[in-house]
Structure formats: structure tokens, C-alpha cells
Design goal:
The chain has 223 residues and is mostly helical. Helices cover 79% and strands 0% of the residues.
Amino acid sequence: MIILLLILFAVKRAYTKRERQAPKGLQSLLEPLILFMRDEVIKPSVGKHYERFVPLLLTIFFFIFANNLLGLIPLIPGGANVTGNIAITLVLAVIVFIVTQFIAKKDYWRHIFLPDVPKALYPILIPIEILGVFTKPIVLCLRLFANITAGHIIILGFFSLIFIFGQMAPAGGFGASVFSMAFALFMSLLELLVAFLQAYVFTLLSALYFGMALEEHHHEEAH
């Protein structure tokens, strides 16, 4: 959080000092990313009220993205694989869940408790819809946790091969180290892509949930 605040406030000061000038430095790095998330992800997913949710969704995106990147650096003092901790992903999912319930409009609740199906199906469909309200944040939580943790486990597995073969014979350890380091390096590079993709997917799904909660159905227009 401190790193994010330092970076973003530095960019804010740069915009203040360089008003109406071309971005440079951190500005040129972050501006395309912010505009992409706002215009290509948040706006189409949330709908016409998207501006209210841009600060929250961008905060979620950068928080996840920054911690995903920090989790790839093994020797940071006090560092940890934060987004590989299910407690962190759970808190993020609960925040999205609470916001979704508070902003939900009547059409959202009507779809859950009075779905547009024959009433004979209500005993089956309504419990499924209610269950879906709670499974959405669970999916958010587990998706991020599982994908980030899986990559680290694979890298750890490759490093473990060095010690396993080294116990059998020193030459085997040296031979396995070349193989293990090559694949661990490849996985680390792949994790850079995963770091962005998982932040993107979490933000996209959160924006879609907000959009579903705000969606209005104009039944009279259908006629």
C-alpha cells in the first residue's frame, strides 16, 4: 500500500506540475494502463454509472497487480506472496460482495426472488439464484488465490528437484540444477503475465457484478 501511494501521489504531482503536457516517466507508464482499465473494462462492464466505481476498481486492480509483482521477488525484506494468501483474496472478494449488495437495484432482487419463469419452478430456481449471490465472491476469492499459488508451487517444485537429485548423487544435483533453473526462469517470466491477467480478471468480474446489480430492465420498452 505504501509503495502504491508513493507511486500514485508522485504521478499526481507530475500531472499538477505538467498540466496539459505530454506524460513522461511514470505518467507514460501508468496512463495507458489506467485508460485501458477505465475505457475497455470498467465502462463497458458497469454501464452508464461507471464513474462512481472507477476509483474502487482501479484501487483493486493496482493493489492486486502490485502485490502479484512483489510476490515474484524472493528476497524482499519482509516480503511475502500476499495474493497467494486466501485471507487477502477473501477480504477483497467480501468488499466486492458488500458493495454489490448495497448498490443493487430492485431489478437485481426481482431477478433473484421473482425470476421470469413459471411459478412452478420457483422452489428450484430461487434457491439457485440465492446460492449464486454467495458463490460469485467465492469464485473471485478462489480464482485469484489458486492461480497465484499454483505458479509459486510449480517454481518451488523445480527448485526441489535440485535437492532430490543431489541426495542421490552430487552430479545429479548439478545436472538437475541446469534443467530446474531454466524451467523456473521460464515460469517466472510466465508469472509476470499471470500477475497482470489475474488483476485484470478480478477487476473485470467485479465490474461485471456491479453492472449486473445496477442493470435496469425496461419491460414496457420490450412491447
